Amino acid sequence: MKAVEIKPNVYWVGGIDWNLRNFHGYITPRGSTYNAYLILDEKITLIDTVKHYLYDEMKTRISSVIDPQEIDVVVSNHVEMDHSGSLPKILDIIPDATLVTSSHGQRGLKKHYDENWNFNVVNAGDSLSIGKRKLDFIPIPMVHWPDSMVTYSKQDKILFTNDAFGQHIATTERFDDQLDWGILKEESAKYYANIVLPYGGQVQKALTGLSDLDFDTIAPSHGIIWRHHLKDIISLYHHWSKNETKPYAVIAYDTMWGSTKKLAYAFASGLEEGGMNVRIRNIQHTPFSNIITDILEAKVIAIGSPTLNNTMLPTVGGFLTYLKGLRPKDRIGFVFGSYGWGGQAVKLIENMIDGLSWDFPEESMNINFVPSEKDLEKAKNKGISIAKNSKNY
Ligand code: FEO
Fold first, then answer.
1. Which of 123, 126, 199, 221 has the fewest CB atoms within 10 Å, i.e. the most exposed one?
2. Is 148 in the pocket of ligand 1 (CB under 6 A)?
3. pLDDT for 214-233, tens place per residue?
4. Ligand 1 contacts CB of residue 167 (under 6 A)
């Protein structure tokens, strides 16, 4: 395992997590990478590290270029342990190295590792000379944590953006022109939907803060490095952070004996008939993180559950908890369900998504036991109406 030179004297020295399939609930079928970068200058600088169990891989890659003990400066752009997890081990062999981080970063790193490292706390506008290069530090709070920051090397025209612009892909290809754009777009959308979605305003601020900088490479902390599709990925971040939707619907439901499913499909047939594309997702069979990716750009979101023991199905409750945390705002909503007695699920769903600024042009449907042909016709007509009027909402 070797370092990969991405620009003269700038190396990728990260770790590849081939077997990662679940990143605290985010399903990652393609694995991931944790990208660390090494800059060879008068002061040898390491930007971010890797998850603790990939430390040896990072160290081996660094050792293919220099003796790791020669590192003078370590930059921690973000405290989360997928990037800081190897700090204790690397700083153990370079105890005199300067550790550059934000004030939130210093607080977080002390809480995580309880170490009195040689911190250099940087704020917006601060820079650090490492020889021929000057590194600038640009806070991008909440993209992904309050401590998140970008390190900018003007001389290399590289933005080291940490989580921003990342994708969970395990690969030995390092650049965006070496992988299929469709896959990169899909994984970037999934990453945005599951990591960054609640912070659209902060993403807008970050994009504004970076827009005046002269760069031709974005080196994130997950996945490939952007050098070919820079405009495309930045344009997508603008689009997603402005909460721009497309005219399609996502129907997320679970079912016990098929009644709620019948309503879901009747509603879907109405949407189709009204000219709107639909994605039907059974929550029992589809990871939350995939449904959220579908929802990222969906104009219409329908949620359905039968009532079980006076509440909604736990699968739907879990999904709504996940959805509420990620806060997709300003959509067209529709709620439906079925019940034997009680029938509380529909109301509880309505309550859970209250506060997300969704419009509900059609009244919810809550059907006793099994929907009749008339009920299904009604669900279909609601779909037709929502599809036909979607431009007006
Ligand atoms: Fe990739 Fe917020 O850590």
1. 123
2. no
3. 999 999 999 999 999 999 99
4. no
